[in-house]
Specification:
- The chain is mainly α.
- It contains 6 helices and no strands.
- The two termini are about 20 Å apart.
Length: about 130
């Protein structure tokens, strides 16, 4: 039970690792299918791969400064996701259910990005008994 609590302590990082990992898999799909990647896929990989590596490193480093730095681009990307979902809801009725799902995911990601920096307290001193 203690290990489950320690996993849930990093729920923000886990959510972002899953979402950035799925972006990496989706953007490299052309390489797997013997197709060439276009410039947007390459730029997406260059943007998401360092975030993905830093998110995994945050499990080990547990730094407040890194959490603040990571929460800014992740939060902005999540806000863009919300705007894309709202555009899909109002302009394309055929994709309304997918857009609502994307809106819910984007909202959860924004909340996780806002909560992430406040999890690491600089003044907290760990004393072992």
């Amino acid at each position: 039970m203690k290990s489950l609590k320690s996993v849930f302590k990093f729920w923000q990082e886990i959510i972002f690792i899953v979402s950035t990992g799925s972006l990496l898999i989706g953007s490299t799909r052309g390489v797997i299918n013997s197709q060439s990647m276009d410039i947007w896929d390459i730029l997406l990989v260059c943007w998401v791969l360092p975030l993905f590596i830093c998110l995994i490193g945050q499990f080990f480093w547990k730094k407040k400064s890194l959490a603040i730095i990571l929460s800014i681009p992740l939060g902005l990307s999540s806000v863009i996701t919300i705007f894309m979902a709202l555009y899909g809801i109002f302009n394309s009725p055929s994709y309304r259910t997918e857009s609502i799902a994307m809106l819910i995911i984007g909202t959860v990601l924004v909340l996780a990005a806002l909560k992430m920096p406040f999890k690491y307290d600089v003044n907290k001193v760990h004393v072992e008994s």
